[in-house]
Write a structure and sequence with these properties.
Largest interface: A-B, 25 and 30 residues
Low-confidence stretches of chain A: none
Distance between the termini of chain B: 63 Å
Number of strands of chain B: 30
Structural class of chain A: alpha+beta
Strand content of chain A: 35-45%
Radius of gyration of chain A: 18 Å
CATH superfamily of the largest domain in chain A: CPE0013-like
Number of strands of chain A: 10
Low-confidence stretches of chain B: none
Oligomer: heterodimer
Mean pLDDT of chain B: 95
CATH superfamily of the largest domain in chain B: FAD/NAD(P)-binding domain
Number of domains of chain B: 3
CATH topology of the largest domain in chain B: FAD/NAD(P)-binding domain
CATH architecture of the largest domain in chain A: Roll
Distance between the termini of chain A: 53 Å
Number of helices of chain A: 2
CATH topology of the largest domain in chain A: CPE0013-like fold
Radius of gyration of chain B: 22 Å
CATH class of the largest domain in chain B: Alpha Beta
Chain lengths: ~120, ~425
């Protein structure tokens, strides 16, 4: 049976996790995690790694001035879609005022995840 | 000249300042908070990545979100916030002299909380030889350019130092379409959190070169065009014949942080040469009665959540001092550490209650036990585990142990 070693990145504890894989490369057993989130992370990481993305979009202020608005995805989504997401964010301009949590992109690339504002502006 | 009177003046509006101000106010003190930027949040505002709040809010937030939550709490209180206001001087009798667009303002405080944060070490401090051309900047400076100013500081980067800001910037630059040639680290082990190594380097296939440093900056027409990197030996000395030229237009430095204590020194605060922060007791009070210190100006933290929790403690202590309810007893126990522990905060303990002691190791220690010793007697020994320099550790000294201590306790790490 194949095994794969991972570092869990759910929290700063950074547990070293070992995943046992079956013949078709699917995770069977996870050990080394100190909490249930570690097991879920390891299974996800083997099948389809997901991350939260954080970046900025252009913000047009009430005075017409341009600034940057920090944004993030409301949840982790497939790492493989991050490059495409960056391309989308490059072409977005948001108008002030904005409140933390306001949705900037709804259902990003059909992932079911939104892009939301990280602060008031 | 404008003059104000407050119980507590907090210097700095980042996570430490806001945490301290809110707690002092909750404890019944009138509070002023002074921030040099036009907005609260400090360096959190440029840390747009997630990873904040896991301890304090039990959810993962970005830096701006973490700051916004505290700014929202501040708005609901009567803490007087002075924005765009620069503190010029703090006197030992706790007059805070500041300047803003209204001119000079003097705040008379009964207690002061220092929460000015830290600064990045620069090229000058690590003395990289070579051409003095444009294109060498600190990682945090590049972070400000990209995340706040919308500037593009370069196209092809080499990052020196594997501290967290350097790793975070490696990812940020890659996401924005810039090329990161590699991260070079002088030490034989990485200096950042493990999750940052994975999420910021591995995800983007950016190589990390350990025991390697930049030995020369090469410029052309006034701009960096390459750097020379060289492997180092066990004594961190460059090894002849191992140099390589790496073409790039920008060198980012992520080579450590230094507490920003110019104001503290002016107030007569004594610094600890190991942390470059103030020497404090268990109430986070400095040698100047009524002046407290917390957050990155006290010692460099790796998590904002830990800064907040420390700052709340300082805020509570400052409020108690201002209201005259702090006991004036001399310190009962002093705390010292031995290598490989680099320092402890606090270094003096008054109360014999359970007390949190923070420390950091100077080199990685596998399978090592934390031991508390007083007068040659072992008072406490922890379970063996791994300690690494990139993680600030916190242990609780139980009341029972403190009561057994004879004047001084020593923290040691013993490898098996």
């Amino acid at each position: 049976m194949d095994t794969k070693k991972l570092v869990c990145t759910v929290c700063p504890n950074s547990c070293s996790v070992t995943v046992e894989l079956n013949e078709s490369g699917e995770p069977v057993r996870v050990t080394g995690n100190r909490c249930p989130r570690g097991e879920a992370f390891a299974r996800q990481e083997i099948t389809c790694p997901v991350r939260v993305i954080a970046s900025t979009v252009l913000l047009r202020g009430e005075d017409g001035q341009e600034a940057l608005l920090p944004v993030r995805s409301s949840a982790a989504f497939a790492l493989s879609k991050h490059a495409q997401t960056m391309e989308l964010l490059r072409h977005i301009t948001v108008r002030a005022p904005v409140k933390m949590g306001d949705v900037v992109i709804h259902n990003l690339l059909d992932t079911g995840v939104d892009v939301i504002a990280s602060c008031n502006s | 000249m404008n003059e104000f009177h407050f119980d507590v003046a907090v210097i700095g509006g980042g996570p430490a300042g806001m945490g301290a101000a809110l707690k002092a106010q909750q404890n019944g003190a009138s509070v002023a908070l002074i921030e040099r930027n036009p907005r609260l949040g400090g360096i959190l505002l440029q840390c747009i990545h997630s990873g904040f709040g896991l301890k304090f809010f039990k959810e993962e937030l970005t830096g701006p979100e973490y700051a916004q939550r505290f700014a929202n709490r501040m708005e609901k209180t009567d803490v007087k916030v002075f924005l765009s206001t620069m503190v010029l001087q703090i006197t030992p009798d706790k007059k805070v002299i500041c300047m803003n667009e209204n001119g000079i303002t003097v705040i008379h405080a009964k207690a002061v909380v220092l929460a000015m944060g830290c600064r990045e070490r620069t090229r000058g401090e690590i003395k990289i030889p070579g051409d003095r051309c444009a294109g060498v900047l600190t990682a945090g400076q590049a972070q400000h350019y990209i995340n706040i100013d919308n500037f593009c500081p370069g196209h092809r980067f080499v990052i020196l130092g594997s501290g967290d800001i350097g790793l975070i910037m490696a990812r940020r630059l890659s996401l924005e379409g810039m090329k990161v040639q590699g991260v070079y680290e002088l030490m034989p082990y990485p200096n950042g959190l493990v999750r940052n190594l994975k999420n910021c380097l591995d995800d983007f296939k950016i190589p990390l070169h350990l025991s390697t440093t930049v030995t020369r900056v090469i410029g052309k027409n006034g701009r960096v065009c390459a750097v020379e990197v060289t492997k180092v030996d066990d004594h961190l000395q460059p090894v002849k014949g191992t140099s390589e030229i790496v073409p790039c237009d920008t060198l980012l430095l992520s080579v450590g942080l230094v507490p920003e204590n110019e104001l503290s020194l002016g107030a007569g605060v004594q610094l600890n040469p190991k942390t470059n922060g103030a020497v404090v007791d268990d109430r986070l009070q400095t040698n100047v009665p009524g002046i407290f210190s917390c957050g990155n100006v006290l010692h460099v933290h790796d998590l904002a959540d830990n800064v907040t929790m420390e700052a709340e403690h300082a805020g509570e202590s400052a409020a108690a001092y201002a209201k005259g309810i702090q006991s004036e007893k001399a310190a009962a126990v002093s705390v010292r550490s031995e290598e490989p522990i680099g320092y402890t905060v606090p270094s003096q303990i008054h109360s014999l209650q359970n007390t949190a002691v923070k420390f950091r190791v100077r080199r990685p220690c596998e399978h090592a036990s934390l031991t508390v010793v007083s007068e040659g007697k072992v008072l406490m020994r922890g379970k063996p585990r791994k300690y690494i320099p990139s993680v600030m550790e916190q242990m609780i000294l139980p009341s029972a142990v403190l009561q057994k201590a004879e004047g001084e306790i020593v923290l040691k790490i013993e490898s098996e």
